[in-house]
Each structure stands twice: as C-alpha cells, then as structure tokens.
Amino acid sequence: MGLHRRIPETIILRQSLVGTLVVAALALGGVAVALYPSGGESGGKASGGSTDETTASEQSAPTRRSEVEGLLQEASGHLKAGRLVKPEDLSALPMVRQALDEEPGNEKAQKLLGQVAQRLGGRGDSLQEEGKLAAAIGAYERSLEAERSPQVQEKLNTVQSRLDRRGRVEKLLGSARSVLGREDPSAEALQEAAGSAREVLKADSGNDKARSFLGRIALRLEEKGDVAQEAGELSAAAGFYEQSHATRSRTPVREKLSAVRSRMRERKKALRLLDQARSALNRRAPSASELREAAQRIRNVRDFTPEEEEISMLLGRVAERSEELGRRAESLSEHQKAVRYYELSLEIKENQSIRKRIVEQLIELTKARLHEGGLTRSQIEEAVEESEVGQPIGLTRSQLEEAETDISTALSYDSRNREAQSIKSLIEAVKRKRGYKKDGGYRKGEVTADVSAVVGTWSYTLETPGGELSGTITIEGDQSGLEGTFTGPQGNEQELQPVSFDGTTLSFTVDSPQSGFVPVSVTMEGETFEGSASTSGGSFPITGKRTSTPNYP
Questions:
Q1: Where are the domains of the chain?
Q2: Which stretch of DSSP H or E encloses residue 301?
Q3: What confidence tens digit (pLDDT) does each residue in 38-78 have?
C-alpha cells in the first residue's frame, strides 16, 4: 500500500477483509477461465493477462480512496474531541498526515491540517497565558509542523524568549536565596545577591520574590552596620549603611548613616587635636598655656573616641611635663610660671607634694610683689612676724591687689598655712592705712574745718631731680567729706585718696600706677599752699595756688 505511518488497527482489519475478497475473486476468475476457455491457448493467455491488470487497477483506486476517507473521518472525530497529537495512533494530526501520504493533494485533508494547526496554536496561546511556557512551545512547534505560519512562529519565538528569561530569573533568585540562607554572609556576597535581585526586576519589574530579597538584604547590611558601629569601626559601619540604603531606601538607615558620618567627622577632628597635643608635648619648653590647651584638646577627644587608654596616657604625659617644667621655673625663681605649671599638673592628677609646692611658690610670689613695692626682704619677714608694716610708698594699688589675690589662692590650697595667713593680714593692714574699702573705693578722710578754704582748682609745681612737674589739683565736697583729682603733666588724672583737712593742713594720697602710693601734705596759706610729696625716690617740695573756686549760694 505504500503507507509510511502505523495504520490503526481498525484500518488494518478493513484492509485485510478487502484483500481476502480480491484474492477470492481472482481465484474464481481463474476457475472460470479454466472451465470455459475461449479461443486458443495464446488468445486465452492474452485475454487472461489483460483482464487481470484491469481488474487490479480498477479495484485498487476505490480501495485507496476508501482508506483516505476513513482516515479523514476518524481525524475529524479526534479533532472535535480535542485529540490533536496524542495518543500517536488515535489523534487528528497523525491520521491527517497518513491521509496526505496516501493522497497528497486531498483538499479535505489539507483543510483538516489547517484546522489542526489552528487548534494547536490556540492551545499554545492558552498554555502561555497559564504560564506553562514549555508546553506552549510544544504546541506552537506542532502547529508549525502542521502548517507554517509567521504569526505562530513569532509567538513561538516570544515564548522561547520568555522561557529563557524565566530560567535566568530562577537562576538569579536561586543565587540570592543561597546567600541569604547563610548564617553570616559577607558584604560582598550580599551585594552580589542584591545585584541578582535587581537583574530579576529588570526582567520582571513585578517580581515579588526579588523585591522581598532586596528588603532582606538591606536589613542584613543594616545589621552589619550596627555591629561595626558598636565596635567603633565607623568607616565600616558607614559603608554597610550606605550599601543598605542603596539596596532599599529607608529613613532609619539614612538617619544612622548621617549619625555615623557625623561621628567620623568628630573623630577626624579628635585625631587632629591629639596630633596637636602630641606636638605640644614634644616641644623643648612649651609654656603652661600651651600645655593647658593640649590637655583641653585631649579632654575634648574623650567625648567622641573610645580610645580611653591613649587619652589617659597623654594626660599623664601632660601632668609629668608640667611638673618637670614647674621645677625648672622654681629653680630659676620664676614663681608665677612655676605656679602655672604646678597648677596644671595638679588639675590632671592629685598630688599632695605638688599642692605643697604651689603654696610655697605663691607665698614667694606675694613677697616678690611686696618687694617690688619698696619693702626689703627683711622688712617683709619682720612685717609678717608682727602683722604690721609701715606704709610701703612704692607699692601700687594694682600690685597690692595682685599680692592679695596670690596669697588668697595659696590659702585656698592650704587654709592652715601660718605664713600665708600672716601675709594676708599684712596686706589687709596696708589697705586699711591707705583707706581702701572692700568694694574697691576709698574711705573718706577727716574734715574738721571750713572746706571753703580748699575747694576749687589749684595749679601746682613739683620739684624733682629731673626738673619741675606741673599740673592741677581739684578739690570738691563739703563738711561731710572731700574728694578730688590729681592731673599730671601729661594730662593723666588720678583719684585722690582720703582727703583730710583740719583748717591748716590738707593731706591726701595719689595712687599712681607709675610712682606707687604717693602721700601729699601741704599747708594752706590763703590762696596758696606749700608742702611735700613723698615717693619711693624721696620727698619733694610741692607748691600751688588756687585758680578757681566754686560758686556758693
């Protein structure tokens, strides 16, 4: 028969029956010829041969058509039932192909083949919508085997592309899932996983798994940042927070990143401060103020660095260096400098020996100030012992106040120090004699006569070894008290301290920053006076006359 495919069992039975009938017919024909020969032997043979060929040809064509019709009829039934390609021996496409093998130009077979192709294409569309891409590809391929179609070919290409993309997506998601399944993945691995998730979202922007993985990766990176920050590894923490924020933007992570960056700037500043402090410590002879500034820088660093051990070590070095330089200053009788160094050392570290040295140096400094005011060392020692002293003329008020500050500081370190207590009493006695008040002013002098004899403006001339000095003296006030000003040759004014008048003698004191405490005593003779001014360089004559008087009612 020339069939190229396996024929269904029903067809085989049908063909066998037809074959049997044909054989039977031929046999009966042979018997008839044998029984009823016509003509000669040669004529019988020729006639017999021609009849056999005609009969076989006439009978084979109807048989073939019958078989094709049977195949197409069964194929139509399978098409209606939806059995397009499977099972192989009971489906539409194989039977239509058999029919076309038997009769290639059969229009009905061609039409059925187009219908099968169309149905297979529709099945591919449904499978594609259901996401069954591999099955859809199979349907489209069988459709194209049945009938070539550009539309179906395009659909096949599209589904194959989708399937390839799905395979890549699954591979990328599997890679990210593997990283997230580790107990402690590295930051690099998490970044690679994030990259995989982003690739998935490029291919499928709505992929929920990829979005979920990105969220989990961001959280893991944030956790690493928290651990690094707690360990003081700020640069690493900032890196983790940056990666977390880049993976998924979240306000808490952004705030943590901002805080860490702020701490990093502070630490950078701290390191710069520490370098400056080390530089000061390494100088040959840094001043007390430089060492104090270095100590403050080191203390400032403590607020934003965990390196407490190094900070304590550097502060200890400042204290040691301060004590060393204090001893050097003390050996050179630089008392004030020694005090500053010792005080800094004591601020950093309590030390009774240093405290004692500070008191000793403050006492020596106070004595030095009194000595500058005109008192000899022996006078100071005697005055201290007796808590009484004469009027140190060369001692200015500022010197006296500085001396009082120094000795008060010494007593703040050791309130029981007897020498410091005596010097304090000595200074207070001097202040009382000068008429200083505790509030910084002056006590009023004693007035026992009519003040009209002295109030007004007076010109004066002071005779000194360097020549005559001239200026004015102004007296104001009433019987309750007098006050005034002393104007020097350069126009500088000084307040007159307690002004006293007994009707004949006018006395007052000028507290000059240059000359110190200068007592003046003159005898009034109408509109003139004469007397003396005592300075640390001696007593000098002074004369004067009144140039104006106030208008009294």
A1: 9-148, 451-548
A2: helix 288-301
A3: 334 344 444 444 445 444 444 466 787 888 888 888 888 88
